Amino acid sequence: MKVVLFVVLLALLGPSVAIGQVTTADAISAIAAGDDRAAAQILQPLTENTSDFDPLAAFFLATLYHAGKGVAHNEFRACGLYLRAAVPPNPFLSQSLALAKAIHNDHPVGRDLCVAASQDRWNEPSAATFSIAPDHWVRIDSAGFVVGYGGNQKPVATTLGGAGWVFLPTKLTELDVASPAKARRHFIEFLVWMPQRVANKPAWMLLWFPYEIVGVEAIPSIRGGIEVATADQPSTEPAVADAIHIRGSADGGAEWVVDGPTPRNGPIPSPEAR
Questions:
Q1: What average pLDDT does the structure give for the chain?
Q2: Which segments of the chain are extended strands (E)?
């Protein structure tokens, strides 16, 4: 039934897809065939290229983010895409507006996030794979944040992306500890500049999100992340990342450290203590 519906859709859209937007038609065919990840890869550039923006591609990519199919589930990414899709000649213009409203529900904060996601380029961490052991790995890409261990895989329930965000390179830190027992602990660290407004002027806040990898679990090491710095412009110089790190603590465990004018540090509980 799903395939039939998409065949009918292609026929109804006619030249607007089959001739004018061949790659959008290919994406719809991929969705009909159940290959949502391939569809997302086709649709992404059509929504990001402002000179060749396709509102229909934005609508279908929004449905994938809304459902978490082929990409990591992200309602505000979907909301922003629905708003971007709500322009002629998209035959789903009214549906796009209705779906965006269903997500933000006219809540002021939700609506502002949705509008920001429609206006600014949506950025995510660069794709990367980290090997912890022969059968233990972490993968970050457009499909999300996934941990593999012992032949099993588990997606991490977190949103890795935002409107106008600027990511520094993701890194893996491995630390040998002596307490509560001798072990090697593994941390995936995300550093991201998030756009802000301070006194009606653009500003940037640098946030750090480290996750400890334990089996197939990715456990937030710091609840909510840590605000590291604010600046007028984001910097991706290596010195920025070097000032933020994880190290062994005096009691043989692990701790987070932020160097700089106001240095700070704090413990990272062991997996057993969480």
A1: 88
A2: 122-123, 128-133, 136-141, 144-149, 152-155, 162-163, 166-167, 171-177, 183-198, 201-214, 217-220, 226-231, 244-248, 254-258, 264-268
